[in-house]
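Q: Could you fold this chain for me?
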Amino acid sequence: MVDMKIWTGRVDAAEGEAAKRWHQAVQALPENGAPGIAIIGFACDEGVRRNQGRVGAAGGPQTLRKALANLAYHPSLPLYDAGDVVCADSDLAAAQRRLGERVAQVIAAGHLPLVLGGGHETAYGHWLGLSAAHPDKRIGVVNFDAHFDLREAPEATSGTPFAQIAADCARHGRVFRYLCLGVAETANTQALFDTARTLNAEWRLDTDMNGWQLADIRGQLAEFLDSVDVVYLTIDLDVLPAAQMPAVSAPAGYGVDIAVVEALAGRIAKSGKLAGADLVEFNPAFDIDSHGAKAAARLAWSLSRHLRR
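A: Sure. Below is the predicted structure, expressed as structure tokens.
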């Protein structure tokens, strides 16, 4: 069941039909709607709790919908709300399976999933849906993140999703293609860098993600996109500087400027290869005057503007 009451905001009726905002454009996901963008919430921070982080990201999807609701709507793909997948019983694996099923369903209906997390445990559930929907395609994972999230742990956490994806690829004979942009050396042990090398992952440090380096970054990203059939884009909001994104479990002391993230994510959206995207780790409990919510909503809005089918 989708609660559309949260989609409210300013109405500029006097300015005509072209003065719409998102809350006036979003519809509950219909059975036979035209291909569009399907928003799915993953109300879960069990992985963050297990990873000893600051819980609260389960409230992210609803807060981000509120932040998106009042943004100006410019003609794009139809916007749909496919409701939330909730983890209320600490059974993370079951919640991830349900998210995967929801993702696969919206793709089968012709839509592109835009998942609002939740902790970065969102990524494994999203991957399950994408891999089921694209069984014969080489899926590349592009992760904007201060962390590799390649941890080995007795149970799944917000720090293990890409290790889980790598293991899933190995089980099913897939090539693990992973590019992590914005890695902070201060936040990743040497062991994690060693794991990344063993898995043939690619990365770029946060110190090499400045605006004046954008042409070089775009070249690296283009080579990666050329090597895969479709792309899964995941944006861990803790990649942004703490001043731009205070509302995460682990705010960044350095980070990658939102303008750089937006430009590169836009390139991915315009490539024609984007199969699914998510924004994760937003924690409204630690936001300051809605700074984080506005930044996250801006990135989601920007992605929608670049998508055409």
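A (continued): The chain has a mean pLDDT of 96.
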